[in-house]
Amino acid sequence: MTDVSNDLFAAAQRLQEQGQPYALVSVVRTEPPASARPGDKALVTAQGIVHGWIGGGCAQPAVLHTVREALKDGRARLIRIAPAEEEAPRDAQALLRDVAEFGMSCHSGGTLELFIDPILPPTRLVIIGDSPVAVALAGLAPRVGLQVTVVAKGADRERFPDASQVIETDDTGGLTGQVAPAALIVVATQGRRDLQGLRAALALKARKIWLVASARKAQVLRDLLIGAQHDPAAVNAIVAPAGAPIGAQTPEEIALSVLAAVVAARRAGHDAVEPVLAAEGVAQTEDVAASAQPAHGPHKGCCGH
Fold this sequence. Notes:
alpha/beta, six-stranded mixed β-sheet, 32% helix
């Protein structure tokens, strides 16, 4: 492995550790005159090239535009940058149907074909609460590629062995700087510090918030939050009941239904759509909760009162 490759991988690791989305841009083919060669690579963020070489300044506007689009939807792209008057050979036109073409922004000539592969940080799921549903969800979520942070006052870390982070306070001041904004949040307090859990979720500026509770209980909590001067739009955007309509009853089944909704939002990208809910969907009522037995810990039911 060359020093150039080592440097590139080290730079990529730094970006990943910082949680910074970026794209690995590789030169696939060139036609002279071109300063880049097939195999040249660069790491490019939405702000520009961080490390590496993929040619001179003529190609960079097209690359930066495409990288920004790829970081929005997570999809790889193949682009071709050529002088505006150049026409693709007829035998290559069929191959270019899935290739975005850009005219060269300066007059140096040459042609570049580049593969742009977006590298996005793992989606973080914040679970607020230490209820049986919270425990079950924290165990399931990493299996679909979610990084889990658990937030609960006095949380027992041994109950959440699969979580990458356990924060033992739900105080909004204590959470500052520990959880990045735009996370997906599930409030699964279920009768223990419900209002404080929702306050913490709102303070974290989440991309989306789900509440594991019945519709009736959720509305009572929304009214209390709005009465306490929380932003009505943010409060009313809280999704409750949380989860896909699978007739879930046990904590594990409820966790599975909630996870399905979270995955749907993750796949929808930054403009996450409302998860599919039906009138006959997951009620998450107190009656169902009372009959459910926890998988771990001392709690006696699955949902709060």
